[in-house]
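2024-03-11 09:14:02 INFO worker-7 job=invfold-0412 stage=load source=structure_tokens
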């Protein structure tokens, strides 16, 4: 290997976070050419993960490391959300009874690269939605692997969770998670509820928060939250909540 090519490789390896993916746009910004990539892969300094993506040999890249590259190298507006974001806070209340896929959220028009889908499709569930503005209530959380990932706050995660209920999350389980959210920030939740695109989610959160007597309820301005019109039946053979025009599991509704 020539001295110039060796220097390029050293620059690459110094800048490359362990256990993450190197993408073509990022490599080009480092001055790595297509010829360099061919030489590096032939020499087994790099291993291809598919078109436009590489990993170091002998490293195992998790979905967290791959997502970190999507966020920092490709600047894709995709974040960890719903129950997965809640679990990342380290609060045991948010650990689900049965493990499942990691939930990633993005706007409707965001498509994850083919190399990501081919390698981690069985581990993640990508939810494309216009439920909330892309950056509202999104923060950074650290993973056990050492990556700082963009992830939904507790407040946003609660609404994302309810967006997926009851099809992907049991409503009774969701209610138990909401009950534990005693530190919800009223100002952020107010803004999220006002800008939430789902009438079902707005009504459901308010009902479950009232049912759990969460402190946030006393600080919300309900007059500014549009609850729409008409009934919403979320389960068959449930019980009707007149205030919020919701039909919910009988376990969640009193007999009054």
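2024-03-11 09:14:09 INFO worker-7 stage=emit residues=256
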């Amino acid at each position: 290997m020539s001295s110039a090519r060796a220097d390029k490789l050293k620059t690459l390896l110094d800048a490359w976070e362990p256990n993450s993916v190197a993408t073509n746009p990022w490599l080009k910004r480092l001055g790595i050419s297509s010829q360099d990539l061919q030489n590096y892969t032939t020499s087994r300094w790099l291993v291809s993960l598919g078109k436009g993506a590489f990993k170091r040999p002998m490293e195992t890249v998790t979905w967290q490391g791959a997502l970190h590259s999507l966020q920092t190298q490709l600047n894709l507006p995709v974040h960890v959300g719903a129950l997965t974001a809640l679990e990342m806070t380290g609060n045991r209340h948010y650990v689900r009874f049965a493990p499942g896929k990691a939930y990633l959220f993005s706007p409707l028009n965001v498509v994850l690269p083919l190399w990501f889908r081919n390698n981690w499709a069985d581990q993640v569930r990508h939810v494309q939605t216009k439920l909330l503005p892309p950056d509202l209530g999104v923060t950074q959380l650290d993973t056990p692997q050492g990556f700082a990932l963009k992830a939904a706050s507790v407040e946003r995660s609660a609404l994302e969770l309810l967006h997926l209920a009851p099809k992907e999350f049991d409503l009774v389980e969701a209610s138990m998670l909401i009950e534990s959210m005693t530190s919800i920030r009223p100002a952020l939740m107010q803004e999220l509820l006002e800008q939430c695109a789902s009438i079902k989610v707005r009504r459901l959160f308010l009902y479950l928060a009232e049912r759990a007597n969460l402190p946030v309820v006393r600080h919300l301005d309900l007059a500014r939250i549009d609850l729409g019109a008409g009934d919403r039946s979320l389960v068959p053979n449930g019980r009707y909540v007149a205030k919020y025009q919701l039909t919910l599991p009988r376990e969640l509704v009193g007999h009054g």
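2024-03-11 09:14:09 INFO worker-7 stage=report msg="Residues 3-15 form the longest helix (13 residues)."
2024-03-11 09:14:10 INFO worker-7 job finished
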